[in-house]
Structure formats: C-alpha cells, structure tokens
Amino acid sequence: MIPVSTLLGTENDEATTAIPQESTRGATVVWHVTGGDNLECAYRDAAGPGRAEGELTTAEAKGFIDDLADYGVEVLRVAGGEPLLREDLSELIAYATDLGLEAVIETNGTLLTAEKSEALADAGLSYAAVAVDGLPDRHDEIWGREGAFDDALAGIEAAQAADLPVAVRFTITDANAADMEEVLDMLALEGIERFEFAHLEYDDNDVMDLDVDHDARRRAVRRVCELTLDAHERGHEIETVLSGNYADAGYVYQYALDELGEERAASVRETLEDIGGDQAGDAIADVDYQGNVHLTPHWQRYALGNVRDRPFSAIWEDESNPILRKLRDREDHVPDRCPDCDYYAMCRGGSRHRALAATGDLWARDPQCYLTDEEIGLEDPASAD
Amino acid sequence: MTDDANTFEKVERPRGRQSREWEVFARESAAEPLRHVGSVTADDRETAHEQATTLFEDPVALWLTPAEAVARYTDPALRPGETA
C-alpha cells in the first residue's frame, strides 16, 4: 500500500501513520475466512450464499494462526466472501490479536451490527475496512442489491458507536471513478478518517472490462493526492492510502516533486523505496477459505500448496517452487522497460498477476502502468500504450 | 514428523473453488526429480495444461492430475489444529 497522507503530509499531521514494513517476508497475510457472501459484487469472484464447503474449522483456523504468529506475520487481513458470515470471526480475531498479530477485516459492512461491532472491538480488531464503491445508486448496482449502500452506512455507524475504527475502501472502476470525491466528502463528514483507494485486480475478462483507462487512472490518483492535501490544509487530517498498483508510487513521487519541492520529494522517494513496490510472493501472501496458499490475494487460479498438507510457513519458505523463486528474484525477469525505469525500486515491475490475466504472459507489462517512457526516465522515449 | 508412516491421516477436505483443482508436477531438468509445484484451477485438462505451461516456462516434464484423484496422507503434526 502507498500511504499517501503520510508521504504528502507533514510531521505535525496527526493522520500520519507508521510506514508499512512490507519488505519483511510474509509480513501481511490476507486470509479469506469464508467463500460465502451475502452480496454479489461485480468486480469479485462470485462466492455464493452462505458458508462454503471446505472452510477451515475453528480448530484448524487457530492452528493456522499459531503458525502465522510463530513465523512472524505482522498483519492478518481477514477477507471473504463476507467474513462476517463466520460466526466464530470474533473468536478468531481475538485469538490472533492475543498472539500479537494486528488484525483487520475487509467487509461489505451490511452485516456489521452493534453486537458484532462490540465483539470485534473487544477482540482487538484494528479496524474494519468497509467497501463503499460509489454514491448510493452506483454502490447498489456494483454490489447487486438495492439498499446495500444504506446498509453499509448503518454498519459503519454501528462500528463507530462501538468505538471500532472504520476505514472506507473504494475500488476504482470505470463505473464509479467520477464518484470518488463525493464519497470521500460525504463519509469524511460521517467521521471516517481512513480511506483506501484500490485499483482493480482481475482474473477474467468480465472484471477486466470494468477497469478505467490510463487517463482516468492518472486523474483518480492525482485526485487522491489533491484531496489529501486539501483536507489537511483545512485541518481535517484524513488518512489516505492507494493500493493495487505500484505505478502510483512513481506518480506520487512526481506529484510531490511538482507540489512540494525537491527536498520533500527526496524524502517521499526514500520512503517509497523502503516500502519496496509489489510484494506478491514475498511480503504479502494469501490463503483462501480452503487453506490454499496463493501468491497474492487476487491470484486465485494458482496455489503453491495447502495448509492442511503442511504449515503456511513451510510453504512460503519453500523456494524449490520456481514461481516463488522468480518472483523473489524478479529483476532478472520483469518486462522490457521495467529494469531501466527510474521507479523500479518503488514498483518492482507492478502486478505480475494482472499481466498474466491480461496477456497470458506472467512477465508482460502490467496493463495498469500508465507512466510514459519519458516520465520513467528512458533515454529514447516512446509512449506508454 | 512421526516415526510411523501408519499414523498418517488421509486429508479428505475438498480443494478448489468454482471449478476443478489440478495438481501440477514439474521436472526442471533431466537430472532433477519431479516436484509438486502447486495446483491450478481449471474446468478441464486442456485449460489446466495451458495454465501450467504459462506459469512454468521451461520444464522438461509437466504432469497434471485432478486433485480429487490424489489420495493425500499427511502426518497429523503438519496439519493445523492437530498435535502429533
């Protein structure tokens, strides 16, 4: 993730957050606790209603969490399906936080009742990231049910009443990019202080078709930077992060250079290089509800192994797997212009999974890289197409 | 690991999501053993092969088997929520 408010804010801002230590192997594990969902989101795999077959039992889940804690995982990001469908969710969160893990959930918010919010807060959940993907009609359309927006807002209010911190997660698509600013304004007034803007990841053409083009993506990222600075200048120190596309790192650096000057930009660059770009197969891992271990959260069609066969830690350390090995040594494999890009250290060639999904070639250019050859410092500029 | 292979337990939980899971084995060179290198999700064998070929570029051998055809016997000590 790219912590925009931390990068562009000042030391006096209260909203600056700790820089994620993403370069530590296996620092963050995304765990889909259930394959079931209560809504059908347009940009995610259909999961189906109710609990899914083969989910880790409570005892298996605790054994899995034990291994994560022993291995040194720092953040457990609990996703779904819809994680609130699991009745033992608070028990598992409490188990993880007792072992020293930071726990976060990604939810559509519609099942976030007062009772569940209190239980999650008591369990030590750091925050609930609630998906809000547009103004009401747009959000309802994306999530496939009239009233989904209102229910998500009710969930947010229930969480706030229980002192459970809430972040809003907005996934940028062609359908909702224009709503971004109004959603942020509306929810900032509701007391939301953290906003996660995610780029689209996809496994198939139907979802790929929802993606924005390069110009719209560039505008959206610029708008996130501008909204962050505007809010901070007005004394409203919202926290903003971008996720899913490390081309943004180069863009945010350029923005800092233009708007804040060379000295501040140098500091931004240093921080972005510390974060280290795309971490699929390295600092970020994914485990699905059946225990299959994946290289990154949206890359579900390939699994390294299964935690029912051997522990996550053993799977993640096994570099006899050629893909894992190559991803960790990717500079020798990344496509054409990446090795010579000025921003390689803060991007690492972008999303290999997205390249695979869009082109059928794991080592092709990330289709979401919108930076031109000139911007990335190539001597013989062509154009990013 | 336990000492006695007879204590291994069969793992009978399903693998795979909306479509079938295929276990993939690859040999990187003639001198190396065939290794399990993960699994791919695909409706049919041809698609599974295509996916595996895309991921593993230069193996000298690539074997695929439907996950449900693999009888998996695992030492309980390696399984979550179990103690040896």
List keywords for this structure.
heterodimer, A: 385 residues, alpha/beta, ten-stranded mixed sheet, 11 strands, B: 84 residues, alpha+beta, Ubiquitin-like (UB roll), three-stranded antiparallel sheet, 13% helix, 29% strand
Describe the model:
The complex is a heterodimer of chains A (385) and B (84). Chain A contains 14 helices and 11 strands. With 385 residues, chain A is an alpha/beta fold. Chain A has a 10-stranded mixed sheet with strand order 7-6-5-4-3-2-1-8-9-11. In chain A, helix 7 links the parallel strand 5 and strand 6. In chain A, helix 9 crosses helix 10 and helix 10 runs antiparallel to helix 11. The longest helix of chain A has 20 residues. Chain A is globular and about 55 Å long. In chain A, 52% of the residues are buried. The model of chain A has no long low-confidence stretch (mean pLDDT 91). Chain B has 84 residues and is an alpha+beta fold. Chain B has a domain of 49 residues: Ubiquitin-like (UB roll), CATH 3.10.20. Chain B is 13% helix and 29% strand. Chain B has a 3-stranded antiparallel sheet. In chain B, strands 1-5 form a two-stranded antiparallel ribbon. In chain B, strand 2 and strand 3 form a beta hairpin. Chain B is flat and about 40 Å long. The N and C termini of chain B lie close together (8 Å). Strand 10 of chain A pairs antiparallel with strand 3 of chain B, so a sheet runs across the interface.
